[in-house]
Amino acid sequence: MDRLFVGLDVHKLSISVTTAEDGRDGAVRFCGEVANTPEQVRKLADRLSRSDSRLEFCYEAGGCGYGIYRQLTEMGHGCLVAAPTLIARKPGDRIKTDRRDSQMLALQHRAGGLTAVWVPDEVHEAMRDLVRARGDAMMALMRARQQLLAFLLRHGRTYPVGKPWTLRHRRWLAGQAFEQDAHRVVFQDYVEAVWASQDRRDQLEARISAMLAGWSLAPLVEALRALRGLDTISAVSFVAAVGDLGRFENPRRLMAYLGLVPSEHSSGERIRRGGITKTGNREARRMLVEAAWSYRYPPRVSTGKTDLVSRQPKVVRDVAWKAQVRLCDRYRRLSAGGKRPTVVIAAIARELSGFIWAIGQEVRPAAP
Length: 368
Hints:
Layout: E1 3-10, E2 14-21, E3 28-35, H1 38-48, E4 54-60, H2 67-74, E5 78-82, H3 98-111, H4 122-154, H5 167-174, H6 181-211, H7 218-224, H8 232-242, H9 251-257, E6 262-264, E7 273-276, H10 282-292, H11 306-310, H12 314-336, H13 341-362
Parallel strand pairs: 1-4, 4-5
Antiparallel strand pairs: 1-2, 2-3, 6-7
Helix pairs in contact: 1-2, 4-6, 4-8, 7-8, 8-10, 9-13, 10-13, 12-13
């Protein structure tokens, strides 16, 4: 059966459609625009499927989500969600329109030049949105705290001892007084914003912990908590961003996906390597970098993790301990060699992703 490749340039309100017939010299035809609604997408698929060709749709991953992918696959058609940063573009092309974008997608899909992204199921996508909401709450909390401290600094109020946002710091805040009524109003508003943001963060973290039991990747999250530097929230954030680790053939693929491998610009006899590529999901990479800082200290199992580690299978316990021994030793050797701390931590995070991959091969997702 011949295939008909359909490129979709998806926007919030409209979808530009171009078809490319199978074969190197197959005809390419622009089919116009349709509204971005499930009903119009269904009518488009029905209109194009009147021929004997199998429909192969494709569109770029973006803010419109995976609704079109799920609808087309449920109708029995093929659909590919392409990674936008890996789509080949002509350097000299200075004209960009929706029609050209849909044509480019159809042609590259026919040539096999598109890289598909991993599409999560609806439960996984819901957990990912919950984790993102928690991240937004954290950013709002940081901003609220910064605004309060900046206001106090303008009035010469600085916390004398210890770290801020402890119980003692809260008592110090409660004792602040201002002569002007406007200053009292502003101070109280900033304080209330901090506590409201903190309550929002705590409530979202509680919801994440409560909904974790019904998630197919909950066993993987529990196993990753055995690694040093990863707790429930960081493990959930990493797994929600990356998904099933079994789709990576080897740990190097996961390292490259997370953007933790060195960049390179070599030509001829000249070899030039730079910093890490920083591609892929930024939140997952940030979680690994934060966890990597805990390997500055000698290897040991903390008191809070003893019960958790003992519940894991032996193979998971062995991988977690091997990670501690290797990464703690590697941190000391790299630091003694004069490497900058940021370079050392990037190297530790890259190797930590390899141990995470090893655990992911042993702990498979549960049935949805």
